Amino acid sequence: MSRWVRLAARNLRRHARRTFLTGSIVVVGFVAVTMTSGFVSQTFSSLKAATIRGTGGHLRLLDPRAAGKTDDEAAILLLDDWQGLAAIVKKDPRVVQAMPKLSFFGLVAKGEKSAAYIGTGTIPALEKNASLASDTVVSGTFLSNPDADEVMLGSGLARALGAKTGDLVTVMATTPDGALNAVDASVDAVLSYPIKEIDDRLLFLPYAVASKLLRSEGKANTLVVLLKDDADVDATARDLSRSLEAKGRPVVVKTWLETAAFYKQVKLLYIAIFFFMGLVLSTVVILAAANTMTMSVFERTREIGTLLAIGMERGQIRTVFLLEGVLLGVVGSAVGAAASFVLRLILNASGIMLPPPPGGTRGNVLHVDFIPLAYGLGFAIMSLTLLIAAWWPARRAARLNPVEALGHV
Predict the structure, then answer these.
(1) Strand-pair partners of 204
(2) Where would I find the beta strands (DSSP E) of 243-398?
(3) Taking a C-beta distance cutoff of 8 angstroms, is the pair 319, 304 a contact?
(4) What 3-state class would DSSP assign to 175?
(5) C-alpha 49: how far from its chain's center?
(6) In the predicted model, what is the mean pLDDT of residues 206-220?
(7) Are 98 and 90 a contacting pair, CB within 8 Å?
């Protein structure tokens, strides 16, 4: 076999211009596959981080009655003694923090103007550490005093009220038992949330103030758990669920992915685009390489006839042409891998800023991830693609009539 490989390599060197053109197609295809996969990987990572920060953590602990219910149905069920629950959860070394959240809605008024809001009661220090909201402050300062009657408003809601930082607003809400309650709070910050529908209704209160407003001290709709970056989310969710049940505090534990419908849709869309691009790219490479190698058969007709006339078998002719295709794929992929590595280093050092990911407010510096699997698949796909492209020309070369081939002009 090594003799036929050497012969195939010699043929490629003899036709250097054709080899260069076909190899260039392979190199460009390989670079496109590996660089796109690295960029898509970074996009998924950024979107994942934005999704986790959008909820403030990796896990959500809900009342056990929430099992099998929709998010809207589960939202009205309150966890009792969230502090005791948080104390148990924080004993796990994988947990960074456990943050209660109270969800509520109602009307907020300033003077004669009022508007509907969707509110969240949270602990300011924990929210600032984990949530996307801390990155969206456009005026004022993020909540800092956990007991102060202070509020943060989305910029759309602030415009509707004509409110700015330092103004006094009245937040009204209905308590779980149906009573109407209200609290006067000063506007501590205005947030510019990236999703307009949320920005037009967004309101934050410190948990202590929100629990008094709702008369739900010690209760929370959910306990949001932030994990260390290297923690296995699914394994931690299972362990916490078993641990809490063993201690007599059964809860429903949901991971960030279970409630991230938008993330799943975007990921599926990117995968579909990447697959379609790869299919088109492979088709282009196959057609271009097949055309080049078919022309090579026409130009080398007399050479093939001579080889058949001196006793080379048709299967050996076919093998040589197939090996030429495979060698082109392997060498082109090797050059493509080197080019991808260099281009990746240049782009990662360029400091190019990308637009914010969906749900985010800040762009990320371009960073093309190194995906070993993409490089391995690139080698396999390009080699197989060139082998497929060489099959028809190799078959035609092997079936030539020696007498006709020798007389070909």
Answers:
(1) 120, 152
(2) 252-255
(3) no
(4) coil
(5) 9
(6) 92
(7) yes
What is the tens place of the pLDDT at every residue in 117-135?
999 999 999 998 888 788 8
Tell me which residue has tokens 């007498």: 403
Dihedrals φ, ψ of 39, to 5°?
Answer: -70, -45
* CA dist., res. 198 & res. 58, Å (int): 21
- Measured between alpha carbons, how far is residue 92 from residues 61, 105, 227, 399 in Å? 15, 33, 10, 71
Give me the residue label for tokens 């995968």: 271
Both tokens of residue 120? 């969240």
Dump pLDDT digits (tens) for 12-46: 777 777 778 878 888 888 888 888 888 888 888 87
Would you tell me how many other CB atoms lie within 10 Å of the CB of residue 256? 23
Length of the chain: 409
Residue 185's nearest CA partner among 137, 152, 158 is 152
Cβ contact 160:113 at 8 Å: yes
Indicate the SS3 state at residue 274: helix
Residue type, 356: P
> 132 is written with which tokens?
């996307």
Question: In angstroms, what is the C-alpha Rg of the chain?
Answer: 32
User: Is residue 96 helix, strand or coil?
Assistant: strand
52 token code pair:
């986790």
| Cα–Cα distance, 202 to 190 (Å, whole number) | 10
Strand ranges inside 92-241, DSSP E? 95-110, 113-122, 137-140, 150-154, 168-174, 180-191, 202-206, 219-220, 222-227
b/e string for 89-114 if b means 16 or more Cβ within 10 A? Answer: beeeebbbbbbbbbbbebebbbeeeb
Residue type, 241: S
Enter the tokens of residue 155. 């910029």
